[in-house]
Design brief:
6-stranded mixed beta sheet; single chain; alpha/beta; binds zinc ion; 6-stranded parallel beta sheet; globular
């Protein structure tokens, strides 16, 4: 499925099968999860996507063909392809173990073609091996919702009481990890979303209510997955002194101005940008130990627009996965 014009539905196109260059894999896509970032890209909220573009960056597939100089995968291997598709390896960020901040990074399904397709090309150095405990469908959401959720959780430090604002794909995975680590999860959904709150409780949240409510006790940290800037202020008021508010999404509406008193007491606001391959390896090793259960709703590839619409209107429980 191809995005030809921002803000327009994806189009089904017959494209020639790409040929892997040196260091690349040609991967036959089995499943590709749908991420909120895909929606931001399609809606034109992220700057300068490749156009036309095949979206999708939570790809599970099988190596069909390897390019020259690939030594870490063979034909037939199952691979996971994440958001971070390429870095230069040379800039100050790459050289200080912060490749997620690389100035020249390329991103799957954004600046390079992704997985809403039968075949895709990926740089073998950025592909992951996936734990055998997960089938293709259940592994797909681990690759972004899980990975970025995990990086957000690491940024949150070592909180006992962790708030999560926006209980979608990333939250439902990372709440399980947080519980496994002995943390108490306080879930905040859209006000009135009783089903979402019930879902959060089922996943072990000690408390769940609308984001217009204050938690019964102060939080040590909060992660915001919903793309609404006003939640930053709400979360800041919910965290205790020294608390941290982590913005886990790639796009967020503007944060309204607020009194300095709300930040006072060494409270911190930070964002999470992309992922490193190290995050990926850590999380994919941890997930089967928790074990993180992914809740998915599948759609055939041709219904990618429907899946995106459901995500936009908040009608998904867990993660949408396209089956190829
Ligand atoms: Zn994503
Ligand atoms: Zn770099």
């Amino acid at each position: 499925m191809v995005l030809e014009q921002l803000g327009k539905p994806l189009q089904l196109r017959d494209l020639p099968t790409p040929v892997p260059g040196p260091g690349q894999l040609l991967v036959r896509v089995a499943a590709c999860a749908v991420c909120r970032t895909d929606l931001h890209i399609v809606d034109g909220e992220l700057p300068n996507p490749k156009l036309p573009l095949i979206p999708g960056h939570e790809i599970v597939g099988y190596v069909n063909e390897i390019g020259a100089d690939v030594d870490n995968f063979s034909a037939g291997d199952r691979v996971g392809i994440p958001w971070l598709g390429w870095t230069d390896g040379e800039c100050p960020y790459c050289r200080s173990h912060r490749e997620n901040l690389c100035d020249f990074a390329r991103f799957t399904g954004y600046t390079i073609d992704g997985g809403y397709a039968e075949f895709t090309i990926a740089d073998a150095r950025f592909c992951f091996r996936l734990p055998d405990e997960y089938d293709d469908i259940s592994a797909a959401p681990l690759l972004c919702a899980g990975l970025l959720g995990y990086r957000s959780l690491k940024k949150a430090g070592d909180p006992l009481r962790l708030g999560i604002y926006g209980f979608g794909a990333a939250a439902h995975l990372i709440a399980q990890v947080a519980r496994y680590e002995g943390r108490q999860v306080f879930a905040f959904t859209r006000p009135g979303d009783k089903a979402g709150q019930e879902f959060a409780r089922k996943l072990g949240a000690v408390w769940a209510d609308g984001s217009d409510q204050m938690p019964p006790e102060k939080l040590d940290a909060a992660i915001i997955f919903a793309p609404a800037g006003e939640l930053v202020l709400i979360a800041l008021r919910a965290v205790t002194k020294g608390g941290i508010v982590v913005c886990g999404g790639i796009h967020m509406s503007d944060i309204p101005s607020f009194p300095y008193a709300d930040l006072w007491g060494e409270r911190t606001i930070c964002s999470v940008a992309n992922l490193t391959r190290e995050d990926g390896k850590e999380f994919l090793a941890l997930a089967p130990r928790v074990p993180v259960q992914t809740q998915t709703q599948t759609f055939p590839l041709e219904e990618a627009n429907t899946a995106l619409d459901r995500l936009r209107s908040g009608q998904l429980e867990g993660a949408a996965v396209l089956l190829i």
